[in-house]
Amino acid sequence: MTTLDSLIDEVRDSPVDQRVSVAFVTRQGARHAGRGRAYRNHVLSLRVGAAVGSCAIEPGELDDDIAYDCVGVPVKKLLSHENRAVRVAALDAALMDTRPHAEGAMTIERGTSLEKSRRRAAAVVDLLPRTRTVLVVGVVNSLLEQLRQRGQDYLPCDHAGGETEWGEPFLPDATALLDRCDAILASGMTLGNGTFEPLLAHAAATGKPFVAFAQTGSAVLPRFLGAGLSAVSAEPYPFFWLDGGPTTIFRYGLST
Question: Could you tell me if residue 95 is left (phi over 0), alpha (psi between -120 and 50 degrees) or otherwise beta?
Fold first, then answer.
């Protein structure tokens, strides 16, 4: 698989007839104890059968009515929705329902929000080889902390703007930085904002390691393994930041 649209077409053309039973938007703010910066997450989630599919969105991008309007609607119809976040969440839910994660399970043990963030970050960064400079698309300070501890340089890039915990400015355009990196570490949010495919194409053309950490599209991104994507940390709902108890991620491509 090389494009999101081709995967959407594949699911839309399948014989499966699924409808959304529950839809919701999670609005979360966090500032880990001991950290100097706060952040916000908004996530659209759709329940299909026994599965939940999700797509993170920028704060204020969608109002709650978008969730209400998805309830009871066939997934195939939502795969043609005008809003990309709805299409991604619907695709994620459909794939989670028909092909749930079954390999690479790892438990993020109970703990404070910062402890769980660091544990997840270590599990994600373990998927990266020890390259010199990593382009990080979708900044998470715990991931940067892990890279710093391992002596790896990074280029922090995020649509939201701002700066890292260490005062480094977020760089605005990931594609302009591709020639400066040796590996790519990207959030699943790139599926929702349309920036995933240029990263995938670059990795496929150059052979650079490309690792995704996915709350958005956790069931979607593993379908791109071998087509430029080398590893995925897939984290379906409920996410680690929602609960102090143990939560689960699924790691694909552990041999990279």
Answer: alpha
- Nearest of 25, 15, 17 to residue 83 by alpha carbon: 25
List, for residues 97-154, the tens digit of each pLDDT value. 999 998 899 999 999 989 999 999 999 999 999 889 999 999 899 999 999 999 999 9
Q: How many angstroms separate the CA atoms of 121 and 119, rounded?
A: 5
Instruction: Report the Cα–Cα distance between both ends of the chain, in Å, rounded.
Output: 19
